[in-house]
């Protein structure tokens, strides 16, 4: 029996500094991009990894890892290769207390380079084996054993897999937590996410940029690229996005929509009500994994019968700890005080 079943793309995150010439050589020129496996292997051969940090990654895997560190019974299901990176990934999540239900593929294990290019963070992902997970790998027994199922937004492209999970979870009254994953996913999948929210018991997690993109896509408004401060994004969400999310969540228990505002906390929309939980801003080492940590803490607190405000408050606190390290490469002892809070429920 698990409390959280997390399903998604198992990835090994590689945090590394590279110069702009090398970034251009391998096409790492946008804030986020996919690269093929040949490019990924070439980067591995060329870059000096003496100062690099490797960590298990992928949104759902991060949620499983952090929730396990918070004392929850967490299971992760995904597809890896049969290489050294697969061993690194499995060792790290099982070392955190996660039960790993990994499908093995002949492809290489997924990689994501988190590159610091002259102070700018750029992501270059090669999901590889992670894409081989299908609905045939997710059994009825695996789904029925969970209290909440967490789905990585990056698997929305595999509609049969997502619908398999949603329909079987719904039959058993098991809610599904979906992280929107990225602005690009939201722009292409907003209508799909909205439809799922109307037909299945759903938590939806979005950051500020994703929430604004969701609003613009649903309203068919022009989604302009603008560099806004956190305060400006919060103002747009409260003024424009909030009324729409109140309508979407008005009525039954689900959907519950959570908008993560980074250093300005989080806003929860549920039952037509709005819960705003603020936090204190810190200077992050990097932001990778912080949103996943928020989700892990929020869902863990919800399972342990905390109020929505308390769920968001714990999410803020745990996310702040993750901001201090590369990805979710954190020692479990750093989260013990939060685990004790959940144990008292």
Spans of at least 5 consecutive residues with low confidence: none
Biggest pleated sheet: 9 strands, mixed
Mean pLDDT: 90
Order of helices and strands: EEHEHEHEHEEEHEHEHEHHEEEHHH
Q: Approximately what portion of the residues adopt beta-strand conformation?
A: 15-25%
Strand order of the largest sheet: 6-5-1-9-10-11-12-13-14
Fraction of residues in helix: 40-55%
**Rg value:** 19 Å
Quaternary state, please? single chain
End-to-end C-alpha gap: 19 Å
In terms of structural class, how would the helical and strand content be classed?
Answer: alpha/beta
Shape: globular
Total of helices: 12
Got a strand count?
Answer: 14
SSE topology:
Layout: E1 4-7, E2 11-18, H1 20-25, E3 32-34, H2 37-46, E4 53-57, H3 59-69, E5 74-80, H4 84-95, E6 99-104, E7 110-117, E8 120-126, H5 140-144, E9 148-151, H6 159-171, E10 176-179, H7 183-199, E11 202-207, H8 208-218, H9 230-249, E12 256-260, E13 266-270, E14 273-277, H10 290-303, H11 308-322, H12 336-343
Parallel strand pairs: 1-5, 1-9, 2-7, 3-8, 5-6, 9-10, 10-11, 11-12
Antiparallel strand pairs: 2-4, 7-8, 12-13, 13-14
Helix pairs in contact: 3-10, 7-8, 8-9, 10-11
């Amino acid at each position: 029996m698990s409390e959280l079943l997390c399903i998604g793309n198992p990835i090994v995150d590689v945090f590394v500094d590279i110069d702009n010439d090398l970034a251009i050589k391998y096409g790492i020129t946008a804030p986020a991009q996919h690269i093929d496996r040949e490019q990924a292997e070439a980067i591995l051969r060329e870059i000096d990894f003496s100062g690099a940090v490797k960590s298990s990654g992928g949104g759902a895997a991060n949620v499983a890892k952090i929730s396990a560190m918070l004392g929850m019974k967490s299971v992760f299901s995904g597809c890896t290769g049969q290489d050294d990176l697969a061993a690194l990934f499995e060792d790290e999540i099982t070392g955190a207390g996660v039960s790993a239900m990994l499908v093995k593929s002949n492809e290489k294990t997924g990689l994501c380079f988190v590159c610091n290019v002259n102070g700018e963070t750029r992501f270059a992902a090669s999901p590889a084996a992670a894409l081989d997970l299908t609905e045939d790998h997710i059994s009825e027994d695996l789904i029925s054993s969970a209290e909440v199922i967490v789905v990585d937004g990056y698997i929305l492209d595999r509609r049969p897999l997502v619908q398999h999970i949603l329909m079987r979870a719904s039959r058993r009254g098991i809610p599904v937590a979906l992280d929107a994953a990225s602005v690009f996913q939201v722009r292409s999948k907003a209508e799909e996410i909205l439809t799922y929210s109307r037909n299945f018991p759903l938590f939806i997690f979005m950051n500020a940029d994703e929430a604004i993109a969701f609003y613009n896509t649903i309203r068919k408004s022009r989604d302009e690229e603008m560099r806004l401060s956190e305060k400006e994004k919060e103002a747009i969400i409260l003024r424009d996005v909030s009324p729409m999310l109140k309508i979407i969540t008005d009525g039954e228990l689900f959907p519950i929509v959570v908008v993560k505002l980074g250093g300005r906390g989080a806003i929860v929309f549920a039952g037509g009500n709005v819960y705003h939980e603020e936090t204190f801003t810190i200077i992050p080492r990097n932001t990778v994994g912080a949103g996943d940590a928020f989700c892990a803490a929020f869902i863990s607190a919800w399972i342990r019968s905390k109020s929505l405000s308390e769920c968001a408050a714990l999410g803020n606190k745990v996310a702040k700890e993750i901001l201090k390290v590369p990805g979710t490469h954190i020692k479990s002892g750093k989260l013990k005080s939060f685990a004790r809070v959940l144990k008292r429920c």
